[in-house]
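Sequence design from tokenized structure. All designs in this work follow the same two-part layout: the structure record, then the generated sequence. An example of the structure record is given first.
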């Protein structure tokens, strides 16, 4: 009965679109091992070290992060404990010994890796150096080496997935941190008075020079048990990274930032900041010691402009690689369902966003990575041996690194940027234009120009709602890639049903006698009000399903394009829009020259063909979201026609082809007999 109501009213698609945001609440359930969402008791990062050991139930990734956190505190606080080879603060020195001892223990408790034994040896050497009261520079150097080893061995993410929004971080700091740390970050907030230990003064240059943005992020993420500083587990990852970058720059001098900006613009001292990870892990003290004051000034500048350090396309690819590592780790721990969800997110929330750009520079690499990701997800679903899954994950990581290199070198140039922008809009908009133009031509031929505004309202509302959905997804609710693909897949299949229905309706009117009888049956001599709004709903569906993803693709492409090439990006968008507008005009104008029978017959075939295309794309989207399992077969892939090497999608399309051919043939014969 619901299907019948839909075919009569066509109200479900609109309701489906409006429910998109609420879908996220079901589709984006917290993953196992994710931090709790209760707010911290006190929002003031303190100066004390972290807890010496996480609970035994914490994930290996969390334990590895805690090890990094402790090593960072050793590097930062050791100079306060030991001066000139002598203990300057006995309690502080004992803490340093305890942290390194706990690091050795926790390293031994982590899952086995090829480098694990070497990391334990290095940690024991670090303990020997601390006990020997060696110079702080030596301690910091070895602690940094161990940190890098842990990051590599356990695939710990040390950078945000995209450049943080520092303007939002400024407002968040005022709301959550200023009461203790003070409005300017000098540790003099009214709520911080009397706290032990006192809130950090972010203007303490000697101390802050030894801290990286990642170390601040760790403090915000993990908190400091036993102190007023609790974990900010109620904030999103992007918000915590934004706070870390913001507080890292609070005590910096404006003169140093201007100097860094000038050096950066001259193209000097850029090599040490090739991506967000290198920027997040750098400390001013290390950079100054290795590369000089100009490089330290560049670090100061980039902490306020992290977008400049993001290798074009790297943010999405780094995010994809990180999620792939988390997926592999979950599979090692026997959490197959979580591993599959993370693998899906690795593709949809990471790699998919750079596909158009990668197509412009190396299409074969894009096709290879997409195929290998499908193979990896299939292995997880089928429960393949861990050794085989690890080998496949390693291959994917190598391919993602190749993709990052292909998209590097200062960003997409003008040519690839133009091609990418042009292809994205033309590819995503072509189906919508064909549908809307056919509907407009129908109304013009029917003499119902008064109904044309309703169709225009349908696609205009779709544009506005698509933009609103994107804004909500970016700034309010964080809609996942899986939710996006489910929405697109369901919408495509709904559109398939609608277009098949409209196609049969138009084919039925392709006979002149049938059309005349239909006109006589209407008081206005043309389409009824219900059918008119039904066509407006089709216009809405056709456009909405393309808008959200198109905006996301352009958002990613903008970050991947070099500043000098962004004018070409706009040129590609404008050129594609002009071509789509011209195509719409040609369809409407050309249809006026056709006889009614030819017009309705041709339009019914076009709509039925579009329905078959959308059916293939709908199945593909649901498979990418892991709602449906893939059934790969050895056939060519023609994405423009919705044809993919998958048995399920091809079977559905074949069934629709047979339905359309049989239906059109039967109706044609019936009309001839009636004549």
């Amino acid at each position: 009965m619901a299907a019948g109501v839909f075919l009569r009213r066509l109200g479900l698609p609109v309701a489906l679109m409006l429910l998109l945001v609420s879908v996220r609440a079901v589709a984006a359930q917290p993953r196992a091992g994710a931090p709790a969402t209760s707010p911290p008791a006190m929002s003031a990062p303190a100066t004390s070290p972290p807890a010496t050991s996480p609970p035994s139930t914490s994930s290996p990734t969390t334990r590895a992060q805690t090890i990094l956190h402790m090593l960072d505190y050793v590097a930062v606080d050791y100079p306060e404990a030991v001066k000139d080879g002598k203990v300057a603060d006995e309690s502080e020195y004992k803490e340093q010994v305890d942290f390194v001892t706990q690091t050795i223990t926790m390293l031994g408790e982590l899952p086995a890796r090829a480098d694990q034994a070497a990391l334990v040896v290095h940690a024991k050497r670090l303990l020997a150096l601390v006990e020997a009261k060696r110079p702080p520079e030596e301690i910091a150097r070895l602690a940094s080496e161990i940190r890098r080893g842990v990051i590599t061995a356990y695939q710990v993410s040390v950078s945000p997935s995209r450049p943080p929004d520092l303007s939002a971080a400024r407002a968040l700091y005022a709301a959550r941190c200023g009461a203790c740390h003070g409005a300017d970050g000098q540790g003099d907030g009214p709520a911080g008075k009397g706290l032990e230990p006192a809130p950090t003064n972010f203007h303490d240059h000697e101390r802050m020079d030894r801290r990286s943005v990642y170390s601040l992020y760790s403090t915000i993420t993990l908190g400091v048990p036993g102190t007023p500083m609790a974990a900010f587990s109620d904030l999103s990852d992007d918000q915590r990274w934004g706070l870390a970058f913001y507080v890292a720059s609070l005590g910096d001098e404006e003169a140093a930032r201007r100097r860094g900006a000038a050096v950066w613009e001259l193209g000097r001292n850029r090599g040490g900041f090739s991506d967000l990870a290198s920027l997040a892990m750098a400390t001013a003290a290390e950079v100054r010691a290795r590369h000089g004051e100009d490089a330290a000034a560049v670090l100061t500048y980039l902490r306020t402009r992290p977008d400049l350090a993001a290798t074009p396309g790297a943010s999405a690819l780094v995010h994809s690689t990180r999620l792939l590592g988390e997926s592999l780790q979950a599979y090692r721990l026997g959490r197959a369902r979580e591993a599959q969800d993370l693998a899906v997110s690795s593709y949809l929330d990471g790699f998919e966003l750079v596909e158009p750009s990668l197509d412009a520079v190396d299409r074969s690499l894009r096709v290879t990575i997409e195929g290998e990701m499908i193979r990896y997800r299939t292995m997880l679903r089928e429960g393949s041996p861990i050794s085989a899954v690890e080998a496949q994950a390693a291959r994917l990581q190598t391919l993602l690194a190749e993709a990052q290199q292909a998209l590097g070198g200062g960003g997409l140039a003008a040519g690839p940027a133009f091609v990418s922008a042009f292809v994205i809009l033309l590819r995503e908009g072509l189906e919508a234009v064909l549908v809307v133009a056919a509907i407009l031509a129908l109304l013009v031929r029917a003499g119902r120009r008064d109904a044309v505004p309703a169709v225009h309202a349908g696609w205009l509302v779709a544009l506005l709602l698509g933009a609103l959905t994107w804004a909500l997804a970016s700034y309010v609710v964080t809609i996942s890639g899986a939710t996006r693909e489910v929405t697109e897949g369901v919408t495509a299949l709904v559109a398939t049903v609608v277009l098949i229905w409209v196609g049969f309706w138009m084919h039925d009117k392709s006979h002149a006698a049938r059309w005349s009888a239909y006109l006589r049956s209407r008081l206005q001599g043309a389409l009824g009000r219900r059918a008119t709004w039904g066509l407006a709903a089709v216009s809405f569906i056709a456009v909405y399903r393309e808008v959200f993803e198109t905006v996301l693709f352009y958002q990613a492409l903008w970050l991947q394009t070099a500043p000098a090439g962004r004018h070409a990006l706009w040129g590609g968008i404008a050129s594609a829009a002009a071509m789509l507008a011209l195509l719409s005009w040609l369809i409407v104008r050309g249809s006026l020259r056709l006889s009614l029978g030819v017009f309705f017959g041709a339009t019914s075939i076009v709509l039925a063909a579009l329905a078959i295309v959308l059916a293939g794309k709908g199945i593909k989207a649901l498979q990418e979201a892991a709602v449906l399992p893939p059934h790969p077969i050895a056939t060519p892939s023609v994405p423009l026609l919705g044809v993919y090497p998958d048995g399920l999608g091809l079977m559905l399309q074949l069934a629709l082809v047979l339905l359309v051919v049989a239906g059109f043939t039967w109706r044609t014969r019936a009309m001839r007999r009636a004549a």
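The beta strands are 82-83, 86-87. We note this feature because it recurs in several other targets discussed in the main text.
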